[in-house]
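Dissemination and training. As part of the outreach component of the grant, students in the summer workshop were shown how a complex can be specified as a set of sequence lines and then modelled as a single object. The example used during the hands-on session is reproduced here so that future cohorts can follow it. Participants entered these lines:
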Amino acid sequence: MTGAQILIECLKREGVQIIFGYPGGQILPTFDKLYDSDIRFILTRHEQGAAHAADGYARATGKPGVCIVTSGPGATNLVTGIATAYMDSIPMIAIAGQVKTSLIGNDAFQEADVTGITRPITKHNFLVKDVTDLARIIREAFYIATTGRPGPVVIDLPSDVQLADTEFIWPEEVKIRSYQPTYFGHPGQIKKAVKLIARAKRPILYIGGGVITSGAHLELKELAEKIQAPVTWTLMGIGAFSAKHPLSLGMLGMHGTAFANHSIMEADLIIAVGARFDDRVTGRLDAFAPGAKVIHIDIDPASISKNVSVEIPIVGDCKNVLGQLLEELRSPPEVSDWLKHVEGLKKKHPLSYRDLGNKIMPQFVIEQIDEVTKGEAIITTEVGQNQMWAAQWYKYLYPRSFISSGGLGTMGFGFPAAIGAKLGRPDKMVIDIAGDGSIQMNIQELATCVCNKINVKVMILNNGYLGMVRQWQELFYKRRYSYTCISGPDYVLLAQSYGAVGIRVTKKEDVRPAIERAISIDNTVLIDFQVEPEENVFPMVPAGEAINKIIGGLA
Amino acid sequence: MKHTISVLVENKFGVLARVAGLFSARGYNIQSLAVSETNDPAVSYMTIVVDALDEKVLDQIKKQLNKLIDVITVTDFTKKEHVSRELVLVKVEYSAKDKIKLENVAAKYAGKVLQHKGDTGIIEAVGDHQQIKDLLESLSQFGVRELVRSGSLVIGC
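and obtained this result:
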């Protein structure tokens, strides 16, 4: 078999059903074999779109997303998408053509040092120099991408290796002696944690994307209910715990709910599960949760005690460790006073927004999307105000229902990610909540949607600004709106010219009917909601402040 | 404070760049680095000396090193009993009358003169960091023309 045939055969054996990508000179041999294969290929209109679509597919399904592009610019166009996946621990396999081995390092046409460029933004990467290594490398790439703390793996594949012939040997087993993630918590640590939990008076569960990655949501719910601890989550943890559960506190941090922030600041025990105490969560570190002891459960030892010092580190897979805790836990703590107090905080500082009469408030749009879809949709977001409002105002009930670039904060992510999510979960309504800035970063994927009949809805909260940056300028730069006022196309005409459906909404009473109509149409629909231009995301904790120093909002 | 870290890695291309990248990405300069095969040719041993690392940064780098797929083990010798040696080769300029003097200085630091050629000599010495430093100070009276050092090698006791 040729290298290209081996690649396709390996992808099939790894269970790959769909690939996103873009062809080019140095990946031609692979595309020739792809043409005959029954793997579905989605041609995006930009390689970045392919990377985000593969990422969105992975986030929606839990399976690794795969993209294939050519060398040089094809590969460098993936970089933002790979870095996005890396920051959020998303399993992804990115395969890039490379100039033939004899030309590597010669500044050949469309040559780039792809393994060099992607080294700090991948979990691992490979340059295949010998076709006899190819099957093993692909096997290892999938194994590395999907196990432990998942992440993107790049395979750089020279064109002569794609053409070279060898006997195909499928490696049944993958063994990497230097890579052995820890999946179960140390029993001694579990015992210590259980003791600490039993003594806690004001416990709080602080959960992140690791709960979703490991599929630990049921164990999490059981633990929360057993110990009656309120649950707050990071942006990446959205959906791991139902927002409608009485113990739910919503998201914490910079734009978290005031009651979540106050609660964690007053807690005496933080049980961190699959979260990493990011600066957007902790605010000023030395003022963060001063009275709390911390149990930190994470599969990645490098995440533990990185920002916040931890009393009981437990390295392991969240699902396993929560299971171990549940098994060991006999006496739940006495927390009725704490729960009463937290309820009081919820009543005192509810999430709210201004009512400006007939003007369309962006939060209102999200609420309406939530009501119309009954929390059953998969929501992807772009980055900025749209992302925060989508995080605050939609009531997520299930893991993998909120797909957003948390770590890297990549504008232009949401739309191609929605394409990937819809292809992975065709049974679900998939909605990209966008801003008018972000959507213009990967708008070309409208063609991908229409031509492949991918039924996603793009709901643009159009305020004519790069809203989040404008908000910071308003609050911290004396309203000097330096280059944040942004124009866009006529979205209705734009949608039409791509063969999609465009709807413009300028009146509040038209918001809900427009959403309902969009959902009823079996086509890509883009809605341009002309929202209040200078609305801010509140609550807000200014960068570098303690997270109970909350400004703005009605609460 | 100086930190000595050893890393046992798979002997593959790109590993050195991965390891070095963890230091450079954080703006830390590697003071010395020695890499070579072990008795198992599939495995290489790296000894890395870095200066003035913040403990928290060091801890993070060690964890990140462990996360690299090709890294087998990471050992921090900073607080561990160990033997440390480096090799130095020095090309020294001297006048004929100082030949004996030069040989004596070299001998004092367990070094030897490998070669005399015209008015230059090449001296070799092996020692710990301090011994090498002392030797180089003594040699400065002759005029050092060229100097190469291997960087530290360490082995645990």
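Chain A has 22 helices and 18 strands. Students were then asked to discuss how this feature might be tested experimentally.
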